[in-house]
Write a sequence for this structure.
């Protein structure tokens, strides 16, 4: 094919440099005679050069997760590429060599003083939105750290006239273009010498450039989120300020302000119900209703400045950043082998609408339950039943021991030693529930058996103590009755003796 020998089709120009191994990645034998000539599964050439991958491929090995259906505006797989797998994509398509991140140059401007700010004076006098911008900036973290209008917009704030303050010779740029905003922010925030004193990272710009937002912006899409959109505009606040857009409890609402907008999301072919699902999930309830800052928000799973949808094979790692013990067990199971059709965390627990996990998932008939993949009479279903029985039996023993301790405490007995033992049983039961992700009965049973034994011991000790307490109380009652009779008898004897005494003269 290189030279076209025996009338073989020559290698087209856009295939230059490809190896023999690369050929069969796309060209397959058609059914026919034993000496049938291999033909490509689609057209041999493409118009122009082969499209390069415009984003980082780190953590995005599952090309078809986005490109099969065009998720997020990704280029759809053409009909001529039907049947190709993720492994074949990068046989032809290569990622661009990323240039070193260069810190953008800061806006040149005349030095400004806090007491000389004609920008604020003029905008305040104009009233309305102009004055509101000044109010927002005055309350911002930027103003508190001495960042003035000219640092972002250029110009000379010491001049009183519009022509002088906003002249090109003074470096005035006015409202930055949307595409320039990340670079403008990076001109300060990507500088280690400036940010070191505030102990904040300086890689946000490089992360943003590799994100879906940054990639789209570089391609000319100005509808995406930028620093200005997410960080409160002119009123930029510290991330630990409860009123900040990026405060953990506010992040879901911030993301939803764009991602719940059906009109805005329509060009990207992505759903808009994520926020509604998240609010009802265990994560959403914990973060938004219980105000638990440990609960994950959108940024926890998708990233902040480097926001991107996790690939299907990455899910276990993303969830594992919080659920580390469960992840360790999961990685030891058959489910973690990455074969087509094997379940990941989201398969059973959901993506945005993560529900509370329970033993009911072993036997339920829902789409996320074990029975949705394993028929009732299958060997896998039998293994599932073993796990279910082991965990539920142990949980029942734990509950019975807990009730026994509560009864003992209600009678006034000291139960601290037994409570300590029961805490150990609870730990083993929790571990067993995580360990069931190994799909190994032996691993689970080692924990449930220990939890059951401890629970039964605690229950027996508590019931024994209650029984002994009842006997002691009965003995005490009898003793009190005897004492009362003795006292009454002595009183009657005393009264009789006094009657027998001679009367006083």
């Amino acid at each position: 094919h290189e030279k076209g020998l025996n009338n073989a089709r020559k290698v087209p120009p856009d295939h230059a440099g490809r190896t023999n191994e690369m050929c069969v990645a796309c060209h397959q034998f058609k059914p026919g005679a034993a000496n049938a000539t291999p033909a490509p599964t689609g057209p041999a050439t493409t118009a122009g050069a082969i499209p390069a991958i415009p984003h980082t491929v780190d953590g995005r090995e599952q090309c078809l997760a986005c490109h099969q259906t065009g998720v997020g505006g990704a280029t759809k797989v053409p009909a001529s590429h039907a049947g190709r797998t993720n492994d074949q994509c990068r046989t032809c398509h290569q990622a661009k060599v990323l240039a070193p991140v260069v810190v953008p140059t800061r806006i040149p401007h005349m030095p400004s003083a806090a007491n000389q700010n004609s920008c604020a004076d003029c905008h305040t006098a104009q009233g309305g939105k102009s004055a509101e911008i000044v109010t927002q900036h005055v309350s911002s973290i930027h103003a508190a750290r001495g960042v003035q209008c000219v640092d972002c917009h250029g110009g000379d704030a010491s001049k009183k006239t519009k022509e002088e303050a906003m002249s090109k010779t003074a470096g005035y740029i006015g409202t930055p273009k949307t595409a320039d905003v990340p670079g403008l922010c990076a001109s300060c925030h990507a500088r280690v010498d400036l940010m070191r004193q505030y102990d904040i990272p300086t890689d946000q710009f490089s992360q943003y450039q590799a994100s879906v937002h940054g990639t789209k912006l570089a391609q000319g899409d100005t509808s995406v989120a930028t620093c200005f959109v997410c960080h409160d505009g002119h009123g930029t606040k510290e991330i630990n300020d409860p009123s900040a857009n990026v405060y953990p409890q506010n992040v879901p609402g911030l993301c939803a302000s764009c991602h719940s907008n059906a009109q805005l999301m329509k060009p990207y072919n992505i759903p808009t119900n994520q926020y509604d699902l998240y609010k009802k999930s265990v994560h959403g309830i914990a973060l938004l209703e219980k105000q638990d800052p440990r609960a994950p928000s959108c940024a926890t799973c998708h990233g902040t400045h480097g926001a991107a949808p996790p690939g299907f094979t990455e899910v276990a790692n993303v969830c594992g950043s919080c659920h580390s013990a469960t992840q360790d067990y999961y990685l030891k199971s058959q489910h973690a082998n990455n074969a087509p059709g094997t379940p990941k965390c989201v398969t059973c627990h959901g993506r945005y609408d993560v529900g509370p996990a329970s033993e009911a998932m072993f036997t339920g008939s829902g789409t996320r339950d074990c029975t949705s993949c394993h028929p009732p009479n299958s060997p896998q279903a039998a293994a599932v039943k073993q796990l279910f029985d082991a965990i539920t039996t142990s949980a029942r023993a734990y509950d019975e021991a807990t009730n026994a301790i509560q009864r003992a405490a209600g009678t006034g007995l000291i139960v601290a030693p037994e409570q300590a033992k029961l805490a150990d049983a609870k730990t083993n039961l929790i571990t067993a529930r995580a360990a069931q992700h190994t799909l190994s009965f032996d691993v689970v049973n080692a924990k449930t058996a220990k939890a059951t034994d401890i629970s039964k011991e605690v229950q027996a000790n508590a019931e024994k103590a209650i029984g002994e307490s009842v006997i002691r109380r009965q003995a005490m009652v009898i003793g009190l009755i005897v004492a009362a009779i003795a006292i009454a008898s002595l009183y009657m004897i005393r009264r009789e003796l006094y009657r027998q005494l001679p009367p006083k003269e």
Observations:
- The two ends are 150 Å apart (CA to CA).
- The CA atoms of residues 116 and 423 lie 65 Å apart.
